Amino acid sequence: MTAESLATFESSLDEVGVECVRATAGGFEEAVAPLLEEPAVGAPLPFEGVSLPDEVNTDPTVADLEAASTGVTAAGYGIADYGSVVIQGGPAGEEPVSLYADEHVAVVAADDVLSDMGAAFDRLAADVRDGAGQSIIATGPSATADMGALVKGAHGPMDVTVVLLEGR
Amino acid sequence: MSAENRRKKAEHIRHLLDTEGDSVRQNTRVFNEGRYESTADLDDYERLKDEARAIKEDAIERLPELIDEVTEAVEANGGTVYLADDAADANRYITEVVDGRTAVKSKSMTSEEIEVNEALEADGADVWETDLAEFVLQIADEAPSHIVAPAIHKSREEIAALFDEVFEPADPPETAEELTRFAREHLGEKIRDADVGMTGANFVTADTGTLALVTSEGNARKCVQATDTHVAVAGVEKVIPSVEDLRPFVELIGRSGTGQDITSYVSLLTPPTDSPTFGEEALGSGDERDFHLVLIDNGRMEMRDDEDLRETLYCIRCSACANSCANFQHVGGHAFGGETYSGGIATGWEAGVHGEESAAEFNDLCTGCSRCVNQCPVKIDIPWINTVVRDRINRGEDGDLDFLVEGLTPDEEPGGVDLQKRLFGNFDALARLGSAFAPVSNWVAGTGPARSVLERTLGVDSRRELPRFERESLVDWFADRGPRVDPDAARERVTLYPDAYTNYVRTERGKAAVRVLEALDVHVDVPAAGESGRAPLSQGMIATARSNAEAVYDALAPAVAAGRDVVVIEPSDLAMFRREYERLLDGDEYEALEGHSYELFEYVYGLLENGAEIDALPDGDGERVAYHSHCQQRTLDLEPYTTAVLDDAGFDVATSDVECCGMAGSFGYKSEYYDLSVDVGETLADQFTTDDTADRTVVASGTSCLEQLDALLTRRPAHPIRLLDARR
Q: pLDDT tens, B521-533?
């Protein structure tokens, strides 16, 4: 991570229609609060000193997922050149939470923003060999052009916001 | 092809132009422009393509070993690999796994290839396509018209009408957003209730057993996530060595296909994964997930052993060859496609997996314009695959020689080659005779009865004006006239290659070329050299093309050996020297000729860069010109020389940006393709009849382009060299 990578990451996110919010660990709850539209679901965050607000349901049923407005998960890393986040799905439910809610809020540590696809694949390959069963390189909201015009929000979220966690 | 079959084919194409042409054209153009823009942003585009190509070459070379490796990796992870010999074998296995349960699918062309839905349904299972385009096709009971965007032929209005008719919703969705919401909700229930998730795989890594799925809608993720049995279907060619090898493909595939830098989701799945699955109400543990990777041969291992079809296996199914193809842009995959695949590379796939008959249905729609060549992210020579398969189809057909054509066709081909193809493939012989008997031959050929016979027997469309042969060929004219620049005082000495069209039909551009080169102090020679082989090659007559190529080489070799450059007027012939001769001549011969050959304006540009003065040529004086470069010329990146020289000479140049004029040598003469050819040509004509271009002098480098423009515009077009000729 360099200052340059972060700047590139932010402008790439902007290009793919993703809002980026910067927050410190201490200021996380305050930063994330306005992004939550209830009902909200989430998967526990792995960052020290950072936890999800109480109103976020971290043990959702199928119906909760389908009804969710917001889904909050961590993302393993970001890719500056593309404005992508890598969602690593495990038993805590990152995959369904990031997929079913109307809006996905992805929390990524600034330290984990990688400059380009080459760096990302070095990391992805190492993770796969370490047993990461599922890594989704997600760039912007889900989309389709199959219905006669470009529509944001096909089967997956129609909005994505990235919370960039700084100063860890 | 019989006259009746030609008529039917023409009718089918006309029908598609009327019903699907507009939607296909709009969508493919968005993809095509998007690809140009998105790849231009990539600093290392060429390096990534080379890397992707090298990975595929290596993977296919080591395929049996990689299949063993991926089998071990998947089994070590707890999954199962089934290697299916053919579609029936694959369907039998998948049917057993699904066992009558409900399956939800994401888009997979390989599953279309094996027609697994039909097999599952016959066994009593429900199968739902969840990709929105595939869903539309499933309820409309139609076939894909594009390998990436399968419902590209359907407009929003048609989809709205379809939903209305099938689902009779209380509040019928109309806008693209409403239609998407409606389909999402409908399919959401299917996904929730399904037991089996089926996907394809864009890539499978041998080292770790990881699938890469390139998607945008999120349905593939849901199909895998919500179910506890995952069946992934992939051709064996999808296996690549390692996870790191995915990188160039991930950067190239979205850009090459729909023109997105990257699609919304690239899923790297190393199943079975421990992500929770859907129970009745609560989420269930993912630990009991069941994973089956079905790798399908279905002709691929034979393709691997086939020197000419092997490259097809490098294809990553991005659709760049379809989107960059002028014919495809106008008619779509329902004409330009076989049983499963569509677009330029489909000829290779169809010939390999379904057989030559399926490829024969549409193979002629590739005109060899070569626009797809630089667009392919794995650098497959797609026109060559089309040519080889055409040659094989030619040879596979029985038939007897016809007296009418036999005398005109001193070719190397066996009996049975379609007479129409033989006629166009032997253009040199035809032109030689036409010229010898001109102008009588022109009068006779132009009469009603002659045109009617030509149309009936050979499918030469009578709406096309035939080329008018000149009595005096360029070579004869030059032999009489002789060179006008003293060889000892000349700046350079060159050989001007008299291609068959310039030699017998468009002699004016040849004479202009001689005079322009001489005005720049170049000593010119114009030896008789014969047709380049382009004409037979475009008909799939490779043996004849090779024999022509050898004759041309023999004619030009003395000049090349003496260190002289060869200047070529017709871009399609220069493209032969630069590209196809590599496959037709010995390596040394190819390199010698290729290294000494230049397109006319490329050469003039070089002269001007090296001391020749533009003042020696007529001043353009701001004359407004509309220039259409030639498809193969643009593939070789030679368009800029013409515009630069004309600019330098004081002309005001506007250029077209269509992929091809639609004439493509013989293509536009063929009665079965005349309507398509004109439809494609109209796009070019439109660009030259705008407010800015309607009064410009029209120039074009290719013979075919000139014929097409001549037919579609009221202004008479000419080769750009005529602008620089003092005799103009």
A: 999 999 999 999 9
